[in-house]
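Troubleshooting: if your tokenizer reports a length mismatch, compare against these two reference records.
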Amino acid sequence: MLKLSVITVVYNNLTDIEDTILNVLELKENNESIEYIIIDGGSTDGTCDIIEKYCDKISCFISESDKGIYDAMNKGVDLAQGEWLIFMNSGDLFYNNDFFRKTFLGNKNISDYDIIYGNTLAKNEGEILFIPYKIIKPYFFFLNTICHQSVFFSRRVFNRVGYYNLDYKIISDRDLLYRISNSKGKFFHIEDIISIWDEEGFSKENFSLFLEEDRIFTRKNFNFFERSFLRFERKLKSGLNKIKLMKSIKSDY
């Protein structure tokens, strides 16, 4: 069975797609246990012409209309045959190839985990190193997420918790990781920098939508914070009422 499926989703990104393809093919060149899948959303700007130049080295390429980035990523999951999956979308790059040899070749322990994740360089007017926390509990996703370009998903985890939720346009990757963590999924952190992530993407261009989805996600999954506050507020009011009552009784005597 293939060890790793690398999935790239793209739509009308003529500028960056070739850099990503060449970067992934460099990883795949000497590793027969890696497959490369590209899902295009029906590009009309020449993106498909670039992809077709490399079709003999790409395991699977489809171009058709879809319902957005997460719909395309779900298609990639359906097509993938690897034990592990990673989404390296147009404009994103693997930092280097060292992680594959160290993590996926001869490492028997990785089969115990649902998620393997590493560190990320975010590209946005310079490079900033982001290091995710090493202990992932469901409440971690209250304010955080892990950059999906540095996340390797075990194939079986999609069968257990489902695919990307198409109700979200921007934060479905955060939602999926939360569901995995909440189902007692096992996360393993590696110290390597896995990817260079281009921040100049869809989420930054649609920041108001991101904030709205963040609000919906938080209220749906973390309303226990709200409930805890309400319980505290009720106790506080009850305590204040008791103090007032005691003062009232004391003044009567």
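Reference record two:
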Amino acid sequence: MATNGDTESVERIIPVPAEQIFALLADPRRHKDFDGSGTVRNAKNVPDHLELGSKFGMSMHLGVPYSMTSTVIEFEPNRRIAWQTWAPGIASRLAGGRIWRYELEPVEGATLVRETWDISQERVKAVVRPARGKTIAGMTKTLERIETVLASN
């Protein structure tokens, strides 16, 4: 696990090729299948395939239902994908800006997967910083679930 104030990262070696992991990450319809936080519900307004600049919506639930809109801001096939999330409409002035990044590095017979939570561009950091511990736990579970989902395919 790595940290630098505005970011937290967790890593896991998953015994699956990077291409399969990337395909799962790049399909927002499948995010609920591996979400370790328990907040992701359903993708909405999803393009046929993600690429740099793609936008997609997500129905979420954390005590109450809400929605987020994400834009893919980093995209290197089979190596890196990141999206930045915002509350929809006028609420984006107060909520959003965090980045979810996945980096994939092939290792012998497996892939090192690094998930990073980056709040360097978050609108109100003081609101999300207290969730740091819960976020790390959720990311750890996410990487476990990615392995489980892909092992069952």
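Descriptive notes for reference record two:
- Strands lie at 2-3, 7-14, 40-44, 55-62, 64-76, 80-86, 96-107, 110-118.
- Residues 40 and 60 are 5 Å apart (CA to CA).
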